[in-house]
Amino acid sequence: MSPAHPSPHPVPTDADWSAPLAPGPLDATVVLPGSKSLTNRYLVLAALASDRSRLRSPLRSRDTLLMAQALRSLGVGIDDVAPEGEVAPGAVADWVVTPPEEPASLRGDVTVDCGLAGTVMRFLPAVAALADGTVRLDGDPQARVRPMGPVVDALRTLGVTIDDEDGHLPLSVAGRGRVRGGAVTLDASASSQFISALLLAGARYDEGVTVHHDGEPVPSEPHILMTVETLRDAGAIVDDSEPNTWRVEPSEINALDVSVEPDLSNAGPFVAAALVAGGTVRVPGWPQHTTQAGDLLREILDTMGADVRLDRSGLTVVGGDELVGIDIDLHDAAELTPTVAALAALASTPTWIRGVAHIRGHETDRLAALTAELSGIGSAVTETEDGLKIAPAALHGGRFRSYHDHRMATAGAILGLRVPGVLVEDIGTTGKTLPDFVGLWAGMLEGAAPGVPVR
Ligand SMILES: O=C(O)C1=C[C@@H](OP(=O)(O)O)[C@@H](O)[C@H](O)C1
Ligand SMILES: C=C(OP(=O)(O)O)C(=O)O
């Protein structure tokens, strides 16, 4: 899809969602579903574990349902079970995950749909290599351009036979029931998920795995730490003491009994809304300690003018008198870029987002998409080699295209809180990681104080 903006005066279509203006300062408590990144790691580890696992409050969204479906087709049992004890508001059924008797008995001769999920397309080939037979992977048209080459080549070095299309989906993994494993060097500067994939499955490889990164700095490092911590929680022995090198010893993976934290990156648009509309947004269950990259939002919102408080009840964000710009390297938390860019377009001082060149390989080329859509509604945005510069400007309504990217769609929702006439194309794309975004957004606005002007 070309990022050039077609018209500043769009005719609404059925596919457009008229982003609601904030009726006044907010007073909302938003219960967010579980983390995509944690849910998909737990699913993979549970599938490779030596016994039955229980995932409490898992995320059920397109990305995690695709992961569950892929694992089911490999012969893993994943069943809904009612949560135990007192049921909290917004609670979902637990997932009980029953692995095959031996990982070597993961079924082959199946086809897996990765959708547009980076976690599925990168993590699954490393798991599929343990299956008994061929596993074919494909996904949405946009998935076919997301980088895969380094993880595919690394798996080959570790003894796996893969037939691929020039480093992209679709590909076929010739599972042989076991993988030799060993040491591999790869360039993971396009995605931390290449490393996470090898580590998550590596404990089940005969020699374990030693992964060495050689190249520009690895992005989204907290996600690698998340991988390491979830592996250690499952009893794996992981050495990450040397920079750019990770070693997972061959071992069994213990069954899990885990509660999935709320998705902090998905909390982004909601807590950002407090800065845009004023008032208060609370997110219960925000963890005190976490490996989620979205935790950086606390610092970002504080710098941009909010009052941010974390205590045992969760996170409380109160909009300040002014929304100001930020100069920030988002290399470690690149998935926050669309949310920060939307806030920046509404800020009274300039913003510079740096260090996120690799998000051109996310769901869409996010730097091009944000530049096109923000400038289409009047923002003074400049695309740089590795980020965006956004200066204050008067914004106007218009169609905000989402490019099948959930975070583009939610960026449009943030802008629409203050800019009349923002039409977000394909709001349903938010279902990639967040079921019922529209309902949650409307619920957040219900508590707003009508008649009090939004700055
Ligand atoms: O491992 C994960 O769960 C993720 C890693 C990151 O990917 P990149 O390293 O490609 O940015 C992040 O942006 C993505 O949303 C989720
Ligand atoms: C980059 C993202 O997703 P994926 O897991 O598909 O890479 C994201 O959610 O912002």
Supply the key terms.
transferase, 455 residues, binds shikimate-3-phosphate, disordered N terminus, cytoplasm, globular, UDP-n-acetylglucosamine1-carboxyvinyl-transferase, Chain, alpha/beta, binds phosphoenolpyruvate, four-stranded mixed beta sheet, 2 domains, 29% helix, 23% strand
Let me know the average pLDDT.
95
Low-confidence stretches: 1-9
Spatial order of the strands forming the largest sheet? 2-15-17-16
How much helix is in the residues? 25-40%
- CATH topology of the largest domain, by name, is UDP-n-acetylglucosamine1-carboxyvinyl-transferase, Chain
Task: Please count the helical segments.
Answer: 12
* Rg over alpha carbons: 22 Å
The level-1 CATH class of the largest domain? Alpha Beta
- The appropriate CATH architecture of the largest domain is Alpha-beta prism
In words, what does this structure look like?
- By secondary structure, the chain is an alpha/beta fold.
- The protein folds into two domains: 16-32 and 263-446, Enolpyruvate transferase domain (UDP-n-acetylglucosamine1-carboxyvinyl-transferase, Chain), CATH 3.65.10.10; 36-250, Enolpyruvate transferase domain (UDP-n-acetylglucosamine1-carboxyvinyl-transferase, Chain, Alpha-beta prism), CATH 3.65.10.10.
- Helix content is 29%, strand content 23%.
- It has helices spanning 36-48, 62-73, 118-128, 149-157, 193-202, 221-233, 264-277, 297-303, 337-345, 366-376, 406-416, 437-446, and strands at 16-18, 26-29, 53-56, 77-81, 94-98, 110-113, 132-138, 161-165, 168-176, 182-186, 209-213, 238-239, 245-248, 257-259, 279-284, 307-311, 314-318, 327-329, 351-354, 380-384, 387-391, 398-400, 422-425.
- A hairpin with a 5-residue loop joins β12 (238-239) and β13.
- α3 (118-128) packs parallel to α5 and α5 runs parallel beside α6 (221-233).
- It is globular, with a radius of gyration of 22 Å.
- The protein binds shikimate-3-phosphate and phosphoenolpyruvate.
- Phosphoenolpyruvate binds next to α3.
- The site of shikimate-3-phosphate (S3P) has 12 residues, from α3 and α5.
